[in-house]
């Protein structure tokens, strides 16, 4: 009887450990994606002045545009970035960056 209780307890602890490990990996990848989002958006800081928007190819002038950054591989995982530049006003642009990656299957 003691062996059965011990086995069930150990099985429960093992499943909690496996679940926690998967969650930790997921959180690490979310943190990496947030850092990569900053990496992809940093070049836009060079063009914050309205008079320099036409001197780049980031889609800050003209109509709304969509673009993508170069994929980055970190810890054997490929992170991809896509961004949308939306015209909000004559001197205001909204940039939305989306970072995606594929998580390993369970």
Overview of the structural elements:
The protein is an alpha+beta fold and 106 residues long. It has one domain. The protein has one helix at residues 2-41; strands at residues 65-68, 72-74, 77-89, 92-100. The longest helix has 40 residues, at 2-41. The radius of gyration is 22 Å and the shape is rod-shaped. It starts with a helix and ends in a 6-residue tail after the last strand.
H and E order:
HEEEE
Proportion of strand residues: 25-35%
**Overall morphology:** rod-shaped
The residue fraction in helices comes out at 25-40%
Q: Specify Rg, calculated over alpha carbons.
A: 22 Å
Overall mean pLDDT: 78
How many strand segments?
A: 4
Estimated structural class = alpha+beta
Number of separate helices: 1
Give the tally of structural domains.
1
Regions with little confidence, pLDDT below 50 for 5+ residues: none
Give the terminus-to-terminus CA distance.
Answer: 33 Å
List the helices and strands and how they pair.
Elements: H1 2-41, E1 65-68, E2 72-74, E3 77-89, E4 92-100
Antiparallel strand pairs: 1-3, 2-3, 3-4
Give a short synopsis of this structure.
This protein has 106 residues and is α+β, with helices and mostly antiparallel strands. It is 38% helix and 27% strand.
């Amino acid at each position: 009887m003691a062996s059965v209780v011990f086995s069930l307890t150990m099985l429960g602890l093992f499943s909690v450990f496996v679940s926690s490990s998967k969650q930790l990996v997921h959180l690490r990848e979310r943190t990496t994606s947030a850092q990569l989002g900053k990496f992809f958006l940093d070049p836009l800081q060079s063009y914050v002045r309205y008079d320099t928007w036409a001197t780049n190819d980031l889609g800050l002038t003209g109509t709304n545009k969509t673009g993508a950054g170069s994929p980055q591989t970190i810890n054997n995982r490929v992170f991809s970035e896509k961004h949308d530049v939306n015209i909000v006003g004559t001197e205001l642009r909204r940039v939305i960056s989306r970072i995606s990656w594929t998580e390993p299957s369970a």
